[in-house]
Amino acid sequence: MTARIIRIFDTTLRDGEQTPGVTLNTAEKLEIAQALARLKVDIIEAGFPISSPGDFAAVSEIAAKVRGPVIAGLARANSKDIDAAVQALKKAERPRVHIFIATSDLHLQYKLKMSRGEVLKATEEAVRYARRFVDDVEFSAEDASRSDRYYLCQIFTAAIAAGATTINIPDTVGYTTPDEFGALIRYIREQVPNIGQAIVSVHCHNDLGMAVANSLAAVQNGAGQIECAINGLGERAGNASLEEIAMALATRAEYYHAAAALDTRHIYRTSRLVSVLSGVVVQPNKAVVGDNAFAHESGIHQHGVLNNPLTYEIMRPESIGLNRNALILGKLSGRHAFEERLKSLGYELDGERINELFTKFKELADRKKMVFDRDIEALVTEKASVTPEWYRLVYHHVVSGNQTTATATVRVETERGFTEQAACGDGPVDAAFKAIEKAVGFPVCLKDYQIKAVTAGEDALGEATVWLEQDGKVVSGRGLSTDIIEASARACMNAINKLIATCGHPAAEKAVGGE
Ligand code: KIV
Ligand code: ZN
User: Fold this and answer.
1) How many A from CA of 172 to the centre of ligand 2?
2) What's the alpha-carbon Rg for the chain, to the nearest Å?
3) Is any atom of ligand 1 closer than 6 Å to the C-beta of 73?
4) Which CATH number is 392-511 given?
5) Helix 149-162 crosses helix 116-131 at what angle (to 10 degrees)?
6) What span, in angstroms and rounded, lies between the C-alpha atoms of 179 and 183?
7) Which listed ligand is nearest to 100 at the C-alpha?
8) What is the arithmetic mean of pLDDT over 325-337?
9) Class of the CATH-defined domain 4-278
10) Cα–Cα distance between 225 and 42 in angstroms, integer?
């Protein structure tokens, strides 16, 4: 029996960006969209164009530059939203307008204050209106899993008659269970008379930890598209995790008789990129992409895996692009070998970016005995490349000890030239952050700070993440170094530059070297 193809609709950049504390700027969204295209997702939901000028710009940029997947923009069921989505998607090769309206009585009464008849009419009009501009229109019945089934079927029948090419059934609040959701999908497929003219999609939230199971139950009952997000990002507890869906379909193909057309070898690095840019750390025991997903702690397991990996591994790490311990080049390695290694890790980068990374690699190889693939991946995903640098940390000097007050001096390049500032703090990291704050000349609100090692060993690369808040928006910055104070100072500087890229500069200066 040949496998049915399941379309993968990635919503990392739309629902995923609704994760509390996540703000991505246009350059970062573009970088993620390009990674999703390499992963070969079928549809990228690039954003909600009417919701903010930033979202509009990001959808336009992705529509203009990313080739391969369909690019979707979200819209409520009204002409203003649809116009914005159509406009933002103008340059897309294959644009999709994704219209949604709530259908549960709860939402109709307390949120929309509309009758069932009014929502039905709005649905028909919105879908018909969008079809004047694009051939590909998806319609979502928000809170479908808590909507009246009979009404839901009426809505979908009307949406398809008006021209919807995909109908989406969201479990908006993550309330349903696999059996119940599977039965709902079957019911809709049996009761909607024109269902054959549309693809049936599902969009599951993870409030009870069942988003992936619910999505797969839908596949077993005929769904042809799954909406999901990298690392399971999304509102509240998030969306179904793309990597878990992908590997469940790939690993249990004979059971589901269904397959996604993804290049799963890009899963691991896409997960890392999204984690780094969103600042949302992947829990170590997360299925598929967590640090422990392929780690075998017990001696019995290790022995079994050495004899035959199938004893305790249902998937090969290589199938998600993870080659954990691959030792790469030493400090004598040349640029060509470095470029080849980047290619084999799946990074197709331009010459200028390779040169920049090669310089960083050489610096790292000088400080660290062994450079692993994960170090290289950390260098590639270091954010400075996509965020214009309003400020650049030239050097830092920190004095600390258990009998002395920690003091830091920093030299920072700004639009006006160089500035040097010193500050005392509660430990060396605090002192460095305070000196940086003085140098940029405006207060920064530190929300959180984290440091971890990229690989094992005492000379491991330290990866610091700093979260800053301004105007209710939280952005994360990342810094890498074998010296954890330097990694922390770089992360702070990166977060400041990102904050400016996202919220604007408090004093409207220009970037040092940015465009
Ligand atoms: O969760 C939801 O219902 C949504 C819709 C906009 C598809 O995100
Ligand atoms: Zn959602």
Assistant:
1) 5
2) 24
3) no
4) 3.30.160.270
5) 20
6) 6
7) 1
8) 72
9) alpha beta
10) 9
